[in-house]
Amino acid sequence: MDRKIIVAGGGAAGMCAAIYAARNGASVTIIEKNSQLGKKLSMTGNGRCNISNLNMNEKMYNPAAEKRMKQWLSVYGVLDVISFFKSLGIVIKSEDGYLYPISGQAQTVVSAFENEIKRLGISVIYGEQLKAVDVIQESENKRYRVLTNNNTYEADRVIIATGSLSGPKTTMSTGDGYYICKKLGLTIKDTYPALVGFKAAAGEIMPDGGVRSLAEISFFLGNEVVAKEYGELQITKDGISGIPVMQASSKVVRLLNEKKPVTVSINFFPDYDEDDYISLEKEMLRLRDDRSLSDFLTGFHNGYITDMIIRKMKMGRSMKMKNISESMVLSILDSYRYYKIKLDSDYGYLQSQVTSGGVSLGDVRDDLTTNNHDGIFVVGELLDVDGRCGGYNLQWAFTSGSIAGTVASL
Ligand SMILES: Cc1cc2nc3c(=O)[nH]c(=O)nc-3n(C[C@H](O)[C@H](O)[C@H](O)COP(=O)(O)OP(=O)(O)OC[C@H]3O[C@@H](n4cnc5c(N)ncnc54)[C@H](O)[C@@H]3O)c2cc1C
């Protein structure tokens, strides 16, 4: 008899689990509360879908998950994702190790998943929301009752893949899985937005327009550097975001939640070492004449950054350079390397890419079944696993989905 498996949630992890289970001969149904599969997947990687990364190891994940990730990645790692995608007919390319579909379109990934789901005869129920999972029979062959807002179903195995709290509203990321798993007796670790930007504190001087600039950013708690990252910073009237900010975010979000004062120091000349910058300053000093401060700095860096620095230093834009002391000029130029902004809070779940926290890894076995139920699996972001930016979160969705789908079908 075919094993009957219900997968709740048709995102990256759920679709992957369903495909692996159906390829092994199981009879699979996906219950998806949205009107389409893979809504979030279609938005990933700025619409390009960064599916994984050749630079893959457990250190790319939250400290609580590292040890388990080492084991899980050894079972299903980046090469397995590549062959899985090949089996779906998706051609992959690497950009410095970051893996994308060659189409450059996340939607083609979703469509290829959907084609395979159709080909395998997996049923998909749209617009129904999983509410609870109950055990029907306390015998050796346990069966499970799956309750949605509309119906009740029975299954031999249930895979809960309902995702997290992160992402725009259309992704339906409302964290349903947390209370469903809590009812099943699982521990839920406190959740926080991760891979997210930050609002600047009131009164901070910010640029008048949006700027993207390569930068090195250091997050300070008092004098202690709590995180340091390099990459393309996005800075707006309101706050900071971009990959280097997101990479540091899981640590910083927690500190801000604890009402700790975090300041970021931005170096807009990250590729200049101390000596290079000193010679640049010397060259600039030689240009001091009767030109105005704003003319003097026109070509120095992005106009919005310069304007922000002039305002922060409370200088007049039309001041003649010859009337500004050498030490003042040096402190203006130094501000491009040490621009400080006090942070207020994170931008919240709606603007975050992942959620840190979730179902405790202490409550799941290596095969992703829960400690108290052999037939219930928890996968994807619902678990307390969050990775850095760069394909690590989708890798986890595929790793956990493939393991659970395979084991559930055995
Ligand atoms: C804007 C954005 C860009 C991202 N870019 C990348 C990237 O390039 N690379 C990367 O590695 N990661 C990226 N991520 C993170 C990645 O998308 C997620 O980690 C991954 O999608 C998680 O997969 P999941 O299947 O666990 O959850 P999801 O993909 O969120 O899927 C969960 C599914 O469950 C459904 N659902 C929820 N509740 C219920 C319920 N009660 N009943 C039935 N169905 C339910 C949802 O509708 C959804 O379809 C990005 C995230 C965002 C928001």
Can you walk me through this structure?
It comes from Butyrivibrio proteoclasticus. Residues 192-354 form the RsdA/BaiN/AoA(So)-like insert domain. Residues 4-406 form the RsdA/BaiN/AoA(So)-like Rossmann fold-like domain. InterPro entries: BaiN-like, BaiN-like_dom_sf, FAD/NAD-bd_sf, RsdA/BaiN/AoA(So)-like_dom, RsdA/BaiN/AoA(So)_Rossmann. This protein is α+β, with helices and mostly antiparallel strands and 410 residues long. The chain has helices at 12-23, 44-47, 66-75, 78-87, 106-119, 176-183, 243-257, 274-286, 293-297, 303-312, 326-335, 392-409, and strands at residues 4-8, 27-32, 52-53, 92-95, 98-101, 123-126, 130-135, 144-148, 152-155, 157-160, 188-194, 198-200, 211-221, 224-235, 239-242, 262-267, 339-346, 354-359, 369-370, 373-378. The longest helix is centred in the C-terminal third of the chain and has 18 residues, at 392-409. The structure holds flavin-adenine dinucleotide (FAD). Flavin-adenine dinucleotide (FAD) binds next to helix 1, strand 2, helix 2 and helix 12. Flavin-adenine dinucleotide binds next to helix 1, strand 2, helix 2 and helix 12.
Number of helices: 12
Write out the strand line-up for the largest beta sheet, numbering strands in chain order.
Answer: 6-2-1-10-20-19
Report how far the terminal alpha carbons are from each other.
12 Å
Beta-strand proportion: 25-35%
Overall number of domains:
2
CATH superfamily of the largest domain: FAD/NAD(P)-binding domain
> C-alpha Rg, in Å?
25 Å
Q: Catalogue the unreliable spans.
A: none
Q: Give the mean pLDDT.
A: 96
Shape: elongated
Major sheet summary line: 6 strands, mixed
- Strand element count: 20
> Strand pairing plus helix content: what structural class?
alpha+beta
Bound molecules: flavin-adenine dinucleotide
CATH topology of the largest domain: FAD/NAD(P)-binding domain
Oligomer: single chain
Helix content: 25-40%
Q: State the CATH architecture of the largest domain.
A: 3-Layer(bba) Sandwich
* CATH class membership of the largest domain: Alpha Beta
Protein name: Flavoprotein HI0933 family
Organism: Butyrivibrio proteoclasticus
Cofactor: FAD
Keywords: FAD, Flavoprotein
